[in-house]
Amino acid sequence: MPATLLKGKPLARKIEEEVASEVTELRQKGITPRLSVVLVGENPASRVYVGSKEKACKRVGIESETFTLPESTTQAELLKVVGALNDNTAVHGILVQLPLPGGLDADEVLETLDPAKDVDGFTPANMGKLLLGFPYTVACTPAGILAIMDHYDVPVEGSDVVIIGRSNIVGKPLAALLMQKAKGRNCTVTVCHSRTRNLTSYTGQADIIVAAMGSPKFLKAGMVRPGCVVIDVGINRVKDDSAVRGYTLVGDADFGELENVASFITPVPGGVGPLTVGMLLKNTVKTARFCGCPQ
């Protein structure tokens, strides 16, 4: 029996409607939510992602601006831009697009960013709050994963979850969220990575598998048990001469193999991706409520 598709676009549209309503409410109070994005260099994927964020902000009424800096930007120059945005009371949310070009220290940048304006939830202060169980803003992709599972009534509470990937963007914050002592969570979480021995011994026992390591079609049918839930976070460009763009987008899970093995599965594209942007909009409204003042 084919797996139930966890489609992100319908839920993303619902979230945008909710955010648009909240933005209207804030504007009536004299607060116009404003998001500032800092983009350094020419990373094609980052540019596409930033463009989608700008369009989404426009749809819901959030003011958005992008500071595009050259590849040659120094650490001092980048920190100066972030510092100025910290001090600008008209700016309610700041997002520094990662990854940064080589030679720039992302950790120092995140330490400099005002936690109250951190719409990505990546600053040390906000990551710490998340781990302690009282988050302010939550990393957008993990928040989107929880939203899509909740929306489709995926059985999560008490599940054995394997996350493949230990990044600060997905793996670590998602693990912290799923292990929280809270309704609909309470999971037993195992985080696997490139140094994990006998990965299949973990994935083969899991109720839920989150593939987030950036390896095209890595997770195969032989690595999972029938009926498991597969959440595919990967977005990989694979060369395809038959495609108009010259490439095809695929996930970290082999959808073709897994769609008849899993009970639920996210497609790529159109699964987790739209929810990542949706959670960014929600975080921007949250920071605007906290930081906002009449303009």
Keywords:
alpha/beta; Rossmann fold; 2 domains; 6-stranded parallel sheet; 3-stranded parallel sheet; 39% helix; globular
Model description:
It is a single chain. By secondary structure, the chain is of the alpha/beta class. The chain has two domains: 31-116, Leucine Dehydrogenase, chain A, domain 1 (Rossmann fold, 3-Layer(aba) Sandwich); 140-273, Rossmann fold, CATH 3.40.50.720. The chain contains ten helices and eleven strands. It has helices at residues 8-28, 44-60, 75-87, 106-112, 124-132, 140-151, 171-178, 200-203, 255-258, 273-291; strands at 4-5, 34-40, 63-69, 93-96, 160-164, 188-192, 208-211, 229-232, 236-239, 247-250, 264-265. The strands form three sheets. A six-stranded parallel sheet has the order 1-11-8-7-5-6, covered by helices on one side. It has a three-stranded parallel sheet with strand order 3-2-4, with helices on both faces. α2 (44-60) links the parallel β2 (34-40) and β3 (63-69). α1 (8-28) runs parallel beside α10, α6 (140-151) packs across α7 (171-178) and α6 packs across α10. The longest helix has 21 residues, at 8-28. It is globular and about 55 Å long. The mean pLDDT is 95.
